From TrEMBL:
PANTHER family per the UniProt record, alphabetical: VACUOLAR CALCIUM ION TRANSPORTER
InterPro entries in the cross-refs: CaH_exchang, CAX-like, NaCa_Exmemb, NCX_ion-bd_dom_sf
Protein name per the record: Ca(2+)/H(+) antiporter
Organism name: Geobacillus sp. (strain Y4.1MC1)
Claim: rRNA-binding is one of the keywords in the record: no
Pfam entry (one): Na_Ca_ex
Coiled coil: none
Superkingdom of origin organism: Bacteria
Keyword Lyase part of the UniProt annotation: no
Molecular function via GO: calcium:proton antiporter activity
Length: 451
């Protein structure tokens, strides 16, 4: 017994080292798991047992699928044949890490959602049901578009890759908004732009800071990028969105549209200049060592496969988005939602859900540069590229869209920008900062729901 305890103490010392031998770590974890199971079963606390398994898995930096095949561990599972434990172990065996699980779920959603979307639209299923089907399917398709874009970006190189990410980063929301403009739902489109800004800066950044902060007390990211993006955010929201509202107070509708077109052209030019600055003239100037190490990745798909998946997913999103737009009116009447709430909360979340999930996963993996780039970079794309493009595209439809927001929308966007800049300008985050951003998003969501 004494020798066994000494052996375990030795194993504990090894666990606190730098995890040099993964196989050795698996054996150590098996011994520890046996102790955890003994403690849990004797005390009749299966929940404690599950927490012990997961805690020591994360402590070693292992995926449950890595050590679950260890014969020692399988012997332990056979020894304690209790139903809750067997269920738990089955879950651990199937789970191979957050990314893979999400990809499988999205694959199932696409396989079921696309046929149901087509069948439901032809058979005229209830609008509320189809609204849910369309939203879930678009979320899954957006994941495929994002993965295909990332694969192409890795294959094409950093400069072309950066341009691809900048172009297709918010393609789903752009497609949904174009069909909404075609249907004359200008208020929904403007609200979705507001919702994307709030969602990225408060919800996504907040969740990333909070989830990452629960695992790491302090997380760092590139402070130079943060300050560079802060300047662009200030221009995009406070200068290009808020100030025009002051000038358009006494303007006619045609004058408002003319001003919006001029602002849109300037914003697109500046956005392209920002891309050129970041990807060409000043690439690597503000890059930290950790950023360079993170760049060496293998593409998930080959170039040809990624192109086909991106093309098919884009066509599917376009088809389903057109159907989704026609359900807004019925859903609004059924649930008592305003067009403003649908645009700010529903459309914004659906259009960016897959990207939001990726940011949170990156934060949990302590890749805060990627998480922050997703949150703030996506906001810049929305404000400086998607919104101006939609203004220009609206000229092709009977209902034009001036870049004029309501007062609550402007105050909410300006507040979110200022709060994000204040919390992220020092280059490090913690869970409390994430909780602050989430609280701000919740307060604004309640306010828009009651409008």
């Amino acid at each position: 017994m004494w020798a066994r305890q000494e052996k375990r103490r030795g194993n504990n010392k090894i666990w606190e080292s730098e995890k040099e031998d993964r196989d050795c770590s698996c054996r150590q974890l098996a011994y520890l798991l046996e102790d955890t199971l003994d403690l849990g079963l004797k005390g009749n606390t299966v929940h404690r047992t599950g927490r012990g398994i997961l805690f020591h898995t994360y402590k070693l930096g292992l995926s449950p699928s890595y050590f679950i095949v260890n014969m020692r561990l399988m012997h332990i599972i056979q020894r304690y044949r209790t139903e809750p434990l067997i269920i738990l172990c089955k879950i651990l065996i199937c789970w191979k890490g957050g990314d893979i699980t999400m990809n499988k779920v999205f694959a199932w959603m696409v396989s079921a959602g696309v046929p149901l979307s087509v069948i439901g639209s032809f058979l005229h299923w209830p609008a509320v049901l189809m609204f849910a089907v369309y939203c879930l399917t678009i979320i899954a398709l957006a994941s495929y578009m994002g993965r295909a874009t990332e694969s192409l970006a890795i294959v094409a190189g950093p400069r072309i890759g950066g341009l691809l990410n900048a172009t297709f980063g918010n393609a789903v929301e752009l497609i949904i908004s174009i069909f909404a403009l075609k249907a004359g739902l200008v208020e929904v489109v403007l609200a979705s732009l507001t919702g994307s800004v709030l969602g990225n800066l408060l919800l996504v950044a907040g969740l990333s800071f909070f989830v990452g902060g629960l695992k790491y007390k302090r997380q760092e990211f590139n402070v130079y990028d943060a300050r560079h993006n802060a300047g662009l955010l200030t221009f995009a929201i406070l200068v290009a969105f808020v100030i025009p509202e002051v000038f358009t107070m006494n303007m006619s509708s045609q004058e408002k549209l003319s001003l919006s077109v001029g602002i849109s052209i300037i914003m697109i030019v500046l956005y392209l200049a920002a891309l050129y600055f970041k990807l060409v003239t000043h690439r690597g100037v503000y890059q930290q060592k950790s950023d360079v190490l993170e760049e060496h990745e293998e593409p998930e798909w080959t170039r040809g496969k990624a192109v086909w998946i991106l093309a098919l997913a884009t066509v599917a999103v376009a088809y389903i988005s057109e159907r989704l737009v026609h359900t807004f009116e019925t859903v609004a009447e059924s649930f008592g939602w305003s067009e403003l709430f649908i645009g700010i909360i529903i459309v914004a979340i659906v259009g960016n859900a897959a990207e939001h999930a990726s940011a949170v996963i990156m934060a949990y993996k302590n890749k805060m540069n990627v998480a922050v780039e997703i949150a703030i970079g996506s906001t810049l794309q929305i404000a400086m590229f998607v919104a101006p493009v939609l203004v220009l595209v609206s000229l092709l439809f009977p209902e034009k869209m001036p870049l004029v927001f309501s007062l609550p929308e402007l105050i909410a966007m300006a507040t979110s920008v200022l709060l994000t800049i204040v919390l992220s300008n020092d280059g490090d985050t913690n869970w409390f900062e994430g909780a602050t951003l989430l609280a701000a998003y919740t307060i604004m969501g309640i306010g828009f729901y009651l409008l």
